[in-house]
Each structure stands twice: as C-alpha cells, then as structure tokens.
Design goal:
Elements: H1 8-17, H2 24-32, H3 35-46, E1 54-63, E2 71-78, E3 88-94, E4 99-106, H4 109-117, H5 126-137, H6 140-148, H7 155-161, H8 163-168
Antiparallel strand pairs: 1-2, 1-3, 3-4
Helix pairs in contact: 4-5, 5-6
C-alpha cells in the first residue's frame, strides 16, 4: 500500500508548526539536491521540440500566491537567451555532448540591488555582482556573451530573425493599439475609497 502524499497546504501547515532552527547553508543544499535531475529531465523533454543544437534550460524560484511559506521551483526551456529576472538560473544545454554550462544565477531582487550598489564585494560574490551590474546597466546579454564566449540570440533577436518562417507557420503578427491615456478628471475625492479602512455603513 502506497503512502498518501501530503498536499501543498498540509506541507505548509507542517512547516509552520516546525520550531526547529535550520542552518541556511543546509537549506540551500537541500534545495539543490534534485536540481541536476530536473535540468536533465527538462532538457530531455525539449530535445526534439527545440530544433537547435543548443538551447537554454531555465530554473525559477517562485513564491506561491496562496501559501506564504511555500517555494516552488519551475523549469522550462527556450531556444534563445531568456529575459533575466531575479531568482533565475540559466544553463546552456548542448545536444551533441549532452552537457550543461551555467550561464548565470541571479539572486533575489534585494540581493541584486545590494551587490550592484557595493563598490567591492567578497571574492565569492564577484561573478554575481558582475551579473547584477550588467542587469541594472541594461547590458546583460552583452555581458553574458563576453563572459562565456557564446553568440546565442536573445528572445527579441531570435523572433526577429525567424519572423518570416513563424508567420508562414501560422503565427499571427499582433497589431498593437495605442494605449488610451487615463482621464484623471473622472476621479472625484468623494468617490475614492480607502480599501484599508473598512466601511462603517
């Protein structure tokens, strides 16, 4: 008889009731235990879908909108360099060698901002500071290409290069309409409601 698997809510309640003090390094190692297997599985799933000799496998750490103490790890693959964002790790997968190459690992937004604002950091954080600086300077892809000696295209560059074949394949080019400016004259002080204060009526 198989043991019933706990739901995310049940795991959340169990974690909230746990008063044990954990070392952050142990938690970090626990999070990375299955990363290699999951990267391999993601690459395997996209091996025949992405018709390129190399593609990016991306890992994202995401909080759950309903369960405050739950952390989800999501994996996906793109035939181009994904847009950088906090809590994101990107690996280049080469089909011919079945090997992964780490391209970047971005920490949370606060850590990125802190690293970028510092003049000097410990040796262990120099690479991550370089990624953070490039992110805020708007030169991220240029920095990654120079750092790893690759010429992989970004999402925008890739879509522009393959634009005609994508249109022929049935992808429609979106016609974007200009946004209508907001009319602030319609906002009246008496009509504004403070959602923090509960109505008395």
């Amino acid at each position: 008889m198989t043991k019933k698997r706990l739901t995310a809510g049940e795991l959340s309640q169990k974690a909230a009731a746990d008063t044990t003090k954990y070392k952050s390094m142990e938690v970090g190692y626990g999070l990375t235990e299955t990363v290699g297997q999951n990267l391999e599985q993601c690459a395997k799933n996209h091996f025949h879908i992405i018709d390129e000799p190399e593609f990016c496998v991306v890992m994202i750490l995401a909080s759950d909108p309903l369960i405050h103490n739950a952390l989800r790890i999501k994996y996906y693959a793109w035939p181009f360099l994904p847009k950088p964002r906090p809590n994101q790790s990107c690996f280049l997968y080469t089909k011919a060698t079945n090997k992964f190459k780490r391209l970047w690992v971005l920490p949370c937004a606060e850590t990125m901002a802190c690293l970028s604002s510092m003049v000097a950091v410990d040796k262990a954080y120099k690479t991550m500071k370089g990624w953070s600086d490039a992110f805020f300077d708007g030169k991220f892809f240029q920095h990654i290409r120079n750092q790893h000696g690759i010429n992989l295209l970004s999402e925008g560059e890739y879509l522009e290069l393959h634009r005609e074949e994508l249109i022929k394949a049935g992808c429609k080019q979106a016609e974007t309409l200009p946004a209508e400016p907001f009319d602030f004259s319609k906002v009246m002080p008496k009509k504004a409601v403070d959602t923090i204060v509960a109505p008395t009526e």
